[in-house]
Design goal:
single chain, 4-stranded antiparallel sheet, alpha+beta, Adenine-n6-DNA-methyltransferase TaqI, Chain A, domain 2, 3 domains, 19 strands, 3-stranded mixed sheet, 323 residues
Length: 323
């Protein structure tokens, strides 16, 4: 669809650090000419509880996993309505904002901005603009604070920001195009995820069949006596693990001794390193998040193990050491 888009006939200098040129017939207006602040509070706290997601914008809290605690009461919290722009003032620089499609409760610390009369149809374009990568620069430089996790965007800073605005007809066309592309990409991603899941199932089935029955599909089988294993080739045996390998355990060298953990080169496997096998379906662990010194090994019951050693966490998964 994008291949058939035609360029505008004329452009002009936008005069913005994050935007070089704009079509000649577009406007650039300050936020205060587009929005007014809205501060309406809930009288009983019974409205839909909303949250601002960096991925999805303003959404009902019940539709997402939020680890933050819920308040005992939402009486006195801010309200927003469909078409209102909601901004998490401490997370605006991280795309914590968007135009709401819902009526509900938001944090009292959020900014709620309503388009001025006659500009209500701008909501769709504004939503895409404020969440775009170029506009991210504007939000970041206008958010002030000492730590990046505490940068705050005030009402005055936001309302003084410049907004490039096409005519209403152009805005509507842009929104239709972006919504169409979003649906197209989401369908593509969903199809790919289903394919990956099916390939994962196929891989697991091939591995299970091969490690429990071997490569000879015509081999005579016998019951293994193990519920999860089923039948296995008649000439195979099922020994206990303790008869074919040695199990080693140990303990962590003291964390209070800096010399055990500073300027080290010996990989030290932790629970986090074993958990990584679940994320990318690897079989081997080649890197560890920590290293230990020879002095630390010498002053504990831990010892170095050769590459190819099976590592097992009693609360995680199993993998093979590649180092």
């Amino acid at each position: 669809m994008s291949q058939h888009l035609r360029p505008y006939p004329a452009h002009r200098d936008a005069g913005l650090p994050w935007l070089c040129v704009v079509p000649a017939h577009w406007e650039i207006r300050r936020g205060k000419t587009l929005f007014r602040c809205v501060d309406v509070r809930s009288s009983d706290g019974a409205e839909e509880l909303l949250t601002v997601s960096s991925q999805r914008g303003v959404i009902p809290r019940r539709s997402t996993k939020v680890t933050m605690f819920k308040a005992e009461s939402y009486v006195g919290y801010k309200l927003c309505w469909p078409g209102d722009l909601v901004v998490n003032s401490l997370w605006a620089w991280g795309r914590g904002l968007g135009v709401s499609k819902h009526h509900g409760i938001v944090s009292s610390a959020y900014g709620v901005y309503r388009l001025r009369p006659g500009l209500e149809d701008y909501a769709g374009f504004i939503h895409h603009l404020v969440r775009s990568s170029p506009f991210h620069w504007e939000l970041q430089v206008r958010s002030k604070g000492i730590w990046i996790s505490r940068l705050q965007l005030t009402d005055d800073a936001f309302l003084s920001a410049p907004f490039p605005l096409p005519p209403p007809a152009d805005q509507a066309a842009i929104v239709r195009f972006l919504d169409h592309m979003d649906r197209h990409i989401r369908r593509y991603v969903s199809a790919r995820r289903r394919l990956i899941a099916l390939l994962g199932e196929q891989k697991a089935a091939v591995i299970r069949r091969t490690v429990t029955c071997g490569l000879d599909t015509a081999a005579n089988l016998k019951p293994s006596g193990v519920e999860w294993m089923g039948d296995l080739p008649a000439h195979w045996s099922v020994p206990r693990i303790k008869t074919v390998c040695r199990v080693d355990t140990g303990h962590t060298p003291s964390r209070k001794v800096a010399a055990y953990w500073e300027d080290c080169t010996i990989p030290w496997f932790t629970l986090a390193d074993v958990h990584q096998l679940r994320g990318d379906c690897r079989t081997y662990v080649f890197e560890t998040s920590e290293c230990v010194s020879e002095l630390g090994i010498a002053n504990s019951s831990a010892r170095t193990l050769p590459a190819g050693t099976v590592i097992l966490s009693r609360t995680a998964s199993v993998g093979f050491s590649g180092t």
